């Protein structure tokens, strides 16, 4: 131990010179595998592993390591630096938080894998960092390296090396796995990794815990279980101690992007609109019969015929009689613009979120032409290929929420439009005909929302009644078709 202290004290002041002399000896060819190294006036110090000594002496001044941004997963290639937890000159240890980065899917805290001093930060706040590129430079602690390498240890067999971390060889594990090991007081060097290149996975930590303790328990103080005193003449029955479940899930934070961001903006603007609601029910029995007759004809033309083309065409006929429902107002509600085209939007539920493409110029389209355009929009919406033209320019909207479920809904207006309708599911319910006889009726509920600043309740009710009459008596639509 005395010799080790001498090396350590001398190394702090003249470690660089030792490295130079040793390299000079090696490069000159006079000393290939030295058994003894003279430390400039100090007694000779015999060391059987010169390569280890070289590593020790070089580490006395610290080694600057580039800490690179590792693969976060889910195909993420770049992230935005949102917050730095360290600055240049700060001392960090393993598992200390270095920074927080945000991708288009999640917010992640990056932890240090080294003990040392931060020498350089490669990014400012809100800069884009790339996977595999350096985040910071860390000067590793030299003193710790010299203490571990100078003291000789007995040789370790190859099999034993597989169960411990070899000095200078990096243990592959994600920050989450390292945190799990730290919380359970597990040395990563004692865990055998089953991942690629010996990477330690979460399952390896859990399996290690199970093999060691027979159960996976979080670090917490053990509660003492006291059995009640046995009753006279009763046999004491051992109490079974149930093992508490371990939940290792974590909260996830994601930025609002894409269609969700657009919906945030639109719905925030909709909050400024005073909504007027109006609900009614329709008997679609006759429309159901007509659709069943026309479905084979439409299918022969390669088109799937649903109820929606009839709903859209009936709405367009109603808008011709009540054009204020097909208008828009300016931000301060000082002017009203009556739209010439009936661009009726259809709310669609897709993998990307809620989208509202619209069928252009419904007032000049037939029911079959509307069905053809709906089929096109639905195919593009399912594959996320709708164009900007398809998603903009709407003047009136229908939401077929009933295709998912529900009978009534409070629809929210999409500014700058002034009205929207939500269609419920079709139900078979008993109703009375004009003769007072009970029959099975195909009943659908509709919920209208209108901008009450320019549309009164009577206007909304009259429009709904006209739309309802077209759908309950489809033949009436023929009288107004142009």
Automatic annotation (TrEMBL):
<dbReference type="InterPro" id="IPR004167">
    <property type="entry name" value="PSBD"/>
</dbReference>
<keyword id="KW-0012">Acyltransferase</keyword>
<dbReference type="GO" id="GO:0160157">
    <property type="term" value="C:branched-chain alpha-ketoacid dehydrogenase complex"/>
</dbReference>
<dbReference type="InterPro" id="IPR000089">
    <property type="entry name" value="Biotin_lipoyl"/>
</dbReference>
<protein>
    <recommendedName>
        <fullName>Dihydrolipoamide acetyltransferase component of pyruvate dehydrogenase complex</fullName>
        <ecNumber>2.3.1.-</ecNumber>
    </recommendedName>
</protein>
<keyword id="KW-0496">Mitochondrion</keyword>
<dbReference type="InterPro" id="IPR050743">
    <property type="entry name" value="2-oxoacid_DH_E2_comp"/>
</dbReference>
<keyword id="KW-0007">Acetylation</keyword>
<dbReference type="GO" id="GO:0005829">
    <property type="term" value="C:cytosol"/>
</dbReference>
<comment type="similarity">
    <text>Belongs to the 2-oxoacid dehydrogenase family.</text>
</comment>
<keyword id="KW-0809">Transit peptide</keyword>
<dbReference type="InterPro" id="IPR001078">
    <property type="entry name" value="2-oxoacid_DH_actylTfrase"/>
</dbReference>
<comment type="function">
    <text>The branched-chain alpha-keto dehydrogenase complex catalyzes the overall conversion of alpha-keto acids to acyl-CoA and CO(2). It contains multiple copies of three enzymatic components: branched-chain alpha-keto acid decarboxylase (E1), lipoamide acyltransferase (E2) and lipoamide dehydrogenase (E3). Within this complex, the catalytic function of this enzyme is to accept, and to transfer to coenzyme A, acyl groups that are generated by the branched-chain alpha-keto acid decarboxylase component.</text>
</comment>
<feature type="region of interest" description="Disordered">
    <location>
        <begin position="219"/>
        <end position="244"/>
    </location>
</feature>
<feature type="domain" description="Lipoyl-binding">
    <location>
        <begin position="64"/>
        <end position="139"/>
    </location>
</feature>
<dbReference type="GO" id="GO:0043754">
    <property type="term" value="F:dihydrolipoamide branched chain acyltransferase activity"/>
</dbReference>
<dbReference type="Pfam" id="PF00364">
    <property type="entry name" value="Biotin_lipoyl"/>
</dbReference>
<dbReference type="GO" id="GO:0031625">
    <property type="term" value="F:ubiquitin protein ligase binding"/>
</dbReference>
<dbReference type="GO" id="GO:0120552">
    <property type="term" value="P:branched-chain alpha-keto acid decarboxylation to branched-chain acyl-CoA"/>
</dbReference>
<keyword id="KW-0450">Lipoyl</keyword>
<dbReference type="GO" id="GO:0015630">
    <property type="term" value="C:microtubule cytoskeleton"/>
</dbReference>
<dbReference type="GO" id="GO:0016407">
    <property type="term" value="F:acetyltransferase activity"/>
</dbReference>
<dbReference type="GO" id="GO:0031405">
    <property type="term" value="F:lipoic acid binding"/>
</dbReference>
<keyword id="KW-0597">Phosphoprotein</keyword>
<keyword id="KW-0808">Transferase</keyword>
<dbReference type="Pfam" id="PF02817">
    <property type="entry name" value="E3_binding"/>
</dbReference>
<feature type="region of interest" description="Disordered">
    <location>
        <begin position="147"/>
        <end position="171"/>
    </location>
</feature>
<dbReference type="InterPro" id="IPR036625">
    <property type="entry name" value="E3-bd_dom_sf"/>
</dbReference>
<feature type="compositionally biased region" description="Basic and acidic residues">
    <location>
        <begin position="157"/>
        <end position="168"/>
    </location>
</feature>
<dbReference type="InterPro" id="IPR011053">
    <property type="entry name" value="Single_hybrid_motif"/>
</dbReference>
<feature type="domain" description="Peripheral subunit-binding (PSBD)">
    <location>
        <begin position="172"/>
        <end position="209"/>
    </location>
</feature>
<dbReference type="GO" id="GO:0042645">
    <property type="term" value="C:mitochondrial nucleoid"/>
</dbReference>
<dbReference type="InterPro" id="IPR023213">
    <property type="entry name" value="CAT-like_dom_sf"/>
</dbReference>
<dbReference type="InterPro" id="IPR003016">
    <property type="entry name" value="2-oxoA_DH_lipoyl-BS"/>
</dbReference>
<dbReference type="Pfam" id="PF00198">
    <property type="entry name" value="2-oxoacid_dh"/>
</dbReference>
């Amino acid at each position: 131990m005395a010799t080790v202290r001498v090396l350590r004290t001398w190394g702090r002041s003249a470690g660089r010179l030792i490295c130079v002399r040793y390299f000079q000896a090696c490069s000159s060819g006079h000393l290939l595998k030295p058994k003894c190294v003279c430390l400039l006036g100090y007694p000779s110090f015999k060391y059987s592993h010169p390569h280890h000594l070289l590593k020790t002496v070089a580490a006395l001044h610290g080694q600057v390591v580039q800490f690179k941004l590792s693969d976060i997963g889910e195909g993420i290639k770049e992230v935005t630096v949102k917050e730095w937890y360290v600055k240049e000159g700060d001392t960090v240890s393993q598992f200390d938080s270095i920074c927080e980065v945000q991708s288009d899917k999640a917010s992640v805290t990056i932890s240090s894998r080294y003990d040392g001093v931060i020498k350089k930060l490669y990014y400012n706040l809100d800069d884009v960092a790339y996977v595999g590129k350096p985040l910071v430079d860390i000067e590793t602690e030299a003193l710790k390296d010299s203490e571990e390498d100078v003291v000789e240890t007995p040789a370790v067999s190859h099999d034993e090396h597989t169960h411990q971390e070899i000095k200078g060889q990096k243990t592959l594990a994600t920050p989450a796995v390292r945190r799990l090991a730290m919380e359970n007081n597990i040395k990563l060097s004692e865990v055998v990794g089953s991942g690629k290149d010996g990477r330690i996975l979460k399952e390896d930590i859990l399996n290690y815990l199970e093999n060691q303790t027979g159960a996976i328990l979080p670090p917490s103080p053990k509660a003492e279980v006291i059995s009640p005193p046995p009753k006279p003449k009763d046999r004491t029955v051992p109490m079974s101690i149930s093992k508490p479940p371990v939940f290792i899930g974590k909260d996830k934070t994601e930025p609002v992007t894409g269609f969700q961001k657009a919906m945030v903006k639109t719905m925030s603007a909709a909050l400024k609109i005073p909504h007027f609601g109006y609900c009614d029910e329709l008997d679609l029995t006759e429309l159901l019969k007509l659709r069943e007759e026309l479905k084979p004809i439409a299918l022969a033309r390669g088109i799937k015929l649903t109820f929606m083309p009839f709903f859209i065409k009936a709405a367009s006929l109603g808008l011709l009689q009540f054009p204020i429902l097909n208008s828009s107002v300016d931000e301060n509600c000082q002017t009203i613009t009556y739209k010439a085209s009936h661009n009726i939007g259809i709310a669609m539920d897709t993998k990307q979120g809620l989208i509202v493409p619209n069928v252009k110029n419904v007032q000049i389209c037939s029911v079959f032409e509307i069905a053809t355009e709906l089929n096109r929009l639905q195919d593009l919406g399912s594959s996320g290929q709708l164009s900007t033209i398809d998603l903009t320019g709407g003047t009136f909207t229908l939401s077929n929420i009933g295709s998912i479920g529900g009978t009534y809904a409070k629809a929210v207006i999409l500014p700058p439009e002034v009205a929207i309708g939500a269609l419920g599911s079709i139900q078979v319910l008993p109703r009375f005909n004009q003769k007072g006889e009970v029959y099975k009726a195909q009943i659908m509920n509709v919920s209208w929302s209108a901008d009450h600043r320019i549309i009164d309740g009577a206007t909304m009710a009259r429009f709904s009644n006209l739309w309802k009459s077209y759908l309950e008596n489809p033949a009436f639509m023929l009288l107004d078709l142009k």
